[in-house]
Amino acid sequence: PGLPGLSGPAEASLRARAARVLAANWTGSSTVPSRSLYPHQWSWDSAFVAVGLRHLSPLRAQTELETLLAAQWGDGRVPHIVFNPSVPLDAYFPSPDFWRSSTAGRAAGAPRTVQTSGIVQPPVHALAVWLVHRADPVLSRARGFLARAYPRLAAWHRYLLHRRDLGGGGLASVVHPWEQGMDNSPCWDLPLSRIPPAPDGSFRRADLGHGAAEDRPTDLDYGRYVRLAADYRDAGYADGGGDFAVEDPAFNALLIASERALARIAEELGAPGTARRARAARLTAALVERLWEPASGMFLCRDLRGGGLLPERGVSGLVPLLLPELPGDVVGALVRTLRGPHFGLGRSTALVPSYDLLGEAFDPHRYWRGPAWFNTSWLLERGLRTHGEREPADALRAAVPALAGASGFAEYVDPYTGEACGATGFSWTAALALDLLH
Ligand code: 9WN
């Protein structure tokens, strides 16, 4: 379907502009999220980028995912950053000399030839692989795309479901806010408050050279990010011992959606998908049991070190709407929360804010503390459509490309005004806008 209110030529020019962003950010084997702020390959960015790229070049979309999966560690983890060796060390912090993957990560099977970070990001990859396959099954079969990706994706899920089941309830935990992808979400304020920050002056932020300081995480946040990552590195990237461990609803919902995609991939390859589908159903039940909070009408994060659910309402708690096997009362409550005063969708906001509009920590410009991001709106568009909520799904389907184009493909926008924040020419914004134009 076309974009309501947008003429054919306007829509064509929006597509062409989005394609130009992705062409400018393509390095030859993968796409950087942003030439200025993020000059390497990021894990969940690449999955979202591939979903859009499949409409421009299924070959590039396959290559994007293959480049990422080639950097997988022996223990199955897919690193959150794959570093480009031709980019100067001071262009992004933390750089490869901080993570020291090939030495500190040796016991966990880090690759020798490519430098990576040692943490992970949300597992959107199997879903992306499946969508990319479907865009051009003939090319995919000719290249053995699924057959090569499948064992890597299976090992990735195995890592998350075994090494990362730190709470023992079946769900995967994140051990760093960067892993969940919503770095400075107010959900992390309490668990992070227990982490002593790395001393001032012991590291140098590169992000402040590109982004406005008031739109980025604070120095105190960074001190804590650095401490947590350094502790993990110094423990050889072994799981289980860190001071931060959280079960996050979006991370687990994406794992479940990807497990369902993996079932379809298995079937396409001639193997049964039943065990994976059953696992997805079990994980959905565990998600509801461990993270659903009826009084808030949404999922919350579980803090394994402090104990209990974290009270903050982040957009992450709405993302499980993606899952078709969610109980009906949970779906109904999620849709009401999304459209109610805390997220305001279709009333005060056209895209989904990253955090509770009524929350004490709400800030319309500061990164994951309020601004609307395009990937979460894309996920919720899918979720609404999955559950037959056609009218709000159609509205999001129109708003994502419109605001992406109007903001210069911004990294994130003010949820009330649509004003661009962070980097412009941001890859997943362009990719997901393109996807919704198809
Ligand atoms: C740390 C690349 C990434 C996204 C994350 C976003 C931001 C990095 C940073 O940029 O995080 O991984 O330096 O702030 O929060 O979701 O994947 O676009």
From TrEMBL:
It comes from the Bacteria. GO terms for biological process: oligosaccharide metabolic process; protein N-linked glycosylation. The lineage of its organism: Bacteria, Bacillati, Actinomycetota, Actinomycetes, Kitasatosporales. It comes from Streptomyces collinus (strain DSM 40733 / Tue 365). Residues 38-429 form the Mannosylglycerate hydrolase MGH1-like glycoside hydrolase domain. Keywords: Glycosidase, Hydrolase. Signal peptide: none annotated. Belongs to the glycosyl hydrolase 63 family. Transmembrane segments: none annotated. InterPro entries: 6-hairpin_glycosidase_sf, 6hp_glycosidase-like_sf, Glycoside_hydrolase_63, MGH1-like_GH. One of its GO terms (molecular function) is Glc3Man9GlcNAc2 oligosaccharide glucosidase activity. This is Mannosylglycerate hydrolase MGH1-like glycoside hydrolase domain-containing protein. Residues 1-8 have a biased composition (Low complexity).
